[in-house]
Amino acid sequence: MAGEDLAERFLAMLAAERGAAANTLAAYRRDLESARDVLGDLASADGEALAGLGQAWSGLAASSLARKCSALRQFYGFLVDEGLRGDDPSGSLPRPRTRRPLPRVLGREDVERFLTLAEEEARSDRPEAVRLLTLLELLYGSGLRATELVSLPAAAVPRDAPFLHVTGKGGQQRMVPVSGRARMALSRWLAVRRGSSKFLFPSTGASGHLTRVRLFQLLRDLAVRAGIDPSRVSPHVLRHAFATHLLEGGADLRVLQMLLGHADIATTQIYTHVDSARLVALVNARHPLAGNRTKLP
Hints:
Elements: H1 3-17, H2 22-39, H3 47-51, H4 53-56, H5 62-81, H6 108-122, H7 127-142, H8 146-150, E1 163-167, E2 173-177, H9 180-192, H10 212-226, H11 235-248, H12 253-260, H13 265-268, H14 276-286
Antiparallel strand pairs: 1-2
Helix pairs in contact: 1-2, 2-5, 6-7, 6-10, 7-9, 7-11
């Protein structure tokens, strides 16, 4: 079977068995095509050929190289698991060192300015203004990913419980608590929302719902009106603010992992960097020897 056909089988497996999202599948397809441009037939490539990818892709950032190599490792692992290849040459792939970047975080004052302006504009009861307030309350109040938020079905909003039913990465479902403020914003949005779309935030576009790009634009426009540098604002930044401010308030890391929908707690641990001052204060206040020894600076 040709390598291109095997690549499609691999992508079909990711979709069916792992619930990979469309964006993930598109990224994996691009990575495999990029490797095929260098190697030719991927299915028959040997370790020596794969080792040469490091030179061919030398101009890529370490994170991009790591992602492409990860796609190839999974592809060759699939071939071995399916009995389509007797050896796995992916051990010869480059292993670039990557450092996870620290998340950008909006301070509490900036978030407050954001929310205050959104509330003031929503007093007009214009559907667009009420929608923006609701989007903002859910991003900061529940920590949803942009894709999770814009594609929320209307049925995800319960009538008698303060939770949203969210389908995250890999098709994993979780329940996310909704703050009292967000529930009030949701009620206002449902009262002015037009049409009978199955999506909570409908749109006339091909997807049927508000797009991530449009959400990004709406937030940056609001930032300009609020006097905040728009380059500091994105849906993901507000998700980071949700996580950081919860941790500062004493939230347990495991609880935060569940709320964010992280499969691995190592992903959640990146937020601990912003809370070092609180951790030092906690040791000084709670450690058995805190009252008998010189306190940490």
